[in-house]
Amino acid sequence: MPAVDTLITSLETLRLRLARTPLPGWGHEAAAAWRDLLPAGLRPLLQGEANRLLLDRHSDLLQVAVADAAGERPLGDVSLDDPSLQDALARRLGESPAPVWLMLPASAVLRRTLTLPAAAEARLRDVLAHEIDRQTPFSADQVSFEGRVLARDAAGQSLRVELLVLPRARLERELQSIGPLAGCLAGADVRDADGRGLGVNLLTHTQRARRSDPSRRFNLGLAAVALVALLLALGLVRYNRGEALADLRADVADATAEVRQARLARNQLVAKVEAANFLATRRAAQPTMLELLDELTRLIPDDTSVDKLTVNDGRLVMVGQSRAAPALVGLLQASPLLEEPALTGAVQADPRTGRDRFTLTARVVGANPEAGDDTVR
Which residue from 86, 144, 194, 252 has the fewest beta carbons nearer than 10 Å? Predict the structure, then answer.
């Protein structure tokens, strides 16, 4: 599928770019440092299941060893001259979950060190297949080969690669020498001068044994259960967060409504207080009706009678009779409670009483036009 090929190519490119950085080395050093801090009994838990069964052929004797994170431990020797013993060993190895590897001596392979461009690492096997004709006397179809990266030069954009070539004829002889044990092999590695494996697999894919791990289904089941549990936990956390968010929003809405009601009540209270203060200020700035009557009683002479007294919109209107009506204007001008006193209309003499009938108006000091009407007859 094109999409899968594209994804695999992208992941391989990312892996190669990461391999050219110092991060993998730092990661291995950090992991080793943490592993060294752990007690000796807990270190194998971090090293994982790395057990392998190793077969080394020396003439007619086959040495069997087990390799794990702690190193190699010999298990015993098996004679290749006994077919029944080989069959029994093959059955035991076939039932073992550990992979079986054939270890070849260093003299069995040709090793060449090459310097290649860094871009060749993405298709290293194809590049090495073309180099076999130049570096060895064999063609690519006559050998089984592998390559391993020895070093990467980020500045020079190059890498050092070791090419390991094993003639197919030599591989077939090695497989025939171990008889039925060849069907149990998962790979074929090469020992270096120190006796350690190089970490390559010179066994072709068709010759490698397909080994089923009995615990794989159990592990897959556990992984599926863990994944489902994780999804359920995430869903529960999301549901709880959603419920908490809904409750919080409801609390915020209630608090907002309460704040709105409190703000409205405060505004109404402030408006009432301001209105009361305004009316009190206005009433304090103008004289009361009692003070106004007292002032008029003190200023108006005894020969003057008042028939009607009206205070409307801060305007005083007084209707009455007096022997000296024009003199009333001067008398009221001396009052601090009245302003602009004046006679309105004509002054008419009343033949019955012998006094002049008048209408006098004045403005009350500090009067509020909205205060209302006060009338005294």
Answer: 194
